[in-house]
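Exercise 7 asks you to align residues with tokens for two separate proteins.
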Amino acid sequence: MSSIAPPSGIDHVDERLLRTTPLKKLLARPELGSVVGAAAVFVFFAVFADSFLRASSLGTVLYAASTIGIMAVPVALLMIGGEFDLSAGVMVTSSALVSSMFSYRMTANVWVGVGVSLLVTLAIGVFNGVMLTRTKLPSFIITLGTFLMLTGLNLGLTKLISGTVSTKTIADMEGFPSARKLFASQLTLGGVELKVTILWWFGLVALATWILLRTRFGNWIFAVGGGADAARAVGVPVHRTKIGLYAGVALCAWISGQHLLFSFDVVQSGEGVGNELIYIIAAVIGGCLITGGYGSAIGSAVGALIFGMTSKGIVYAEWNPDWFKFFLGAMLLLATLLNAWIRKRVEATK
């Protein structure tokens, strides 16, 4: 590889001035390992599941990926910033429960419940961020506590208000059709039925990618994940950045929660437990490092796509679905090892 020769008497050249090959740029992309993995999963199920390549199956796979991908995007940004959120899964259910029960009990337009849910969900996210920055405790402990509290509140309040573990139907309330159109409708494109969550997912990936690569806040995210003390020393508002990242997780939890509610018009209070691990897995498969400072929103989308292909591919292949988590775990390990190998090769050639 050719590079700019350093001026006489200077032993070091800023690496940003070094010329690099397209191959090295490709190898440096955090989502490369997940793209290779996604291609392998696609080919695998294309061979072993006859119905996997049908047009109708495409919509189903993308829908399964979008329900994970909407949350994997902000979780990936949070991990790039060096933190976790173990409450993300139950927060989705909390968002749906607040919308449903507030609308039903107050006999109001469902849009009022949707608005209240947005405020409550954002408050939960900000609470996580403020507790993290004020107490200096690990995000694992903070969000585990929030996870347990929300799990108890979801079940306890639903039983107290509704008398059962699920909410009452709100399908006959004013505003329900328009809310369903926004959060749970479907459209036909080229003969394929696509859920609106796919559009939400693509939009969030595009927005997150723009934030990471084109904005000052994106630079702050990478800086905070790479080292909070060093970032603070150069003027990065570390606390505000982390609180903003947790608020982003809450915003996407609200979107996912409204989809859950308006897809079925009732919500089971015990849903969402365990989904936080799937969001993290999608982000890690997509190239995010657990240590922070590295990753991409596109990678999280590819990780979610691998989840969608695997979950539905096993069904199309008519295999026992009990094997699903085995395949997901194998993909997690393989993607992580591949990402680590690629990074070492790139660093060795610098």
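Second protein for Exercise 7:
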Amino acid sequence: MSDLRIPPLYVPAETVVPEEPASRASLTLGHVLRGIGGDYDPAVPLEDIHVIRHTFKPSDPDALRGPEDLTQERVLAYTREQDIPPRFPSSPPRYWVILIADGGRRSRLWGTYENQGEVATTSTKKYRFFDLRPTEFLAPLNDRLVVEWDNPRSWHRNAGSPTCARMPVLEIADRDKVHFPGFDGVLLTYHQLRDLVDDPRYTDWRIALSEVQGIYLITDSTNGKQYVGKADGAERILGRWTAYARDGHGGNVALRELAHQSAAGERTGMKTDHARHFVFSLLRVFGPSTPSSEVNSAESHYKAALMTRQFGLNRN
């Protein structure tokens, strides 16, 4: 399907009467699901699709607390566990389409699971656990399809229901490219840093950060503690920050201690849970030919100036 942006041909959701069908001029979620499902053999009817909308719950360690939790591991663990009926269907459909709240009623497609059935040996009196497998169904639209969810209080819906099928499609397009703001303007949350490593939207960032050595600052936004680090030699800023994106500590002693102490991380199974509140910025950059001695001297200066050995997260 080619990129397109759907103009607001529908009435704003706040003024829509729930029983009123969507305008025939509007592209709806039902149109998209019916069209793609029809290409399968056998065809996938709307009734065999369940649409689930996840929202972030920052204070709940067992939920998706922020964008940094949108990993295959975390979304699967959160989705496969469901309350016993009547809150969730007793016999849920084959395909589970996962949307993520994207501001207001905007809901962006994250991915789709194929339901292989309930795992009776894992389910309890309170929760049911399902064997969900990632599937390519709707894969070309992942992170591109945005619909307007009609009622935020209702977090799941069968695609064959009139209310779900007529949800308007707001856009089908790649996310906008993130322009590099210059070295002095770099300020990244941890989930943005993880996007930086792989997301095509950050191509300009990767090019710029792969060309410089430098001194960087990591700040824990929950308590203000800071860590001053360096990237020198062939590693460059991009290489050093890629290590943080992978494990949250990059081998640093104090940050590694935080990873082991993270109680929330133990509950969720996230190795990087301790880093979810980290903010990354640059203090100074150097050209690729700058001697390591000059980079080392700058690192020592900033550690002393910011007192990160006495009050922060530096151990040397």
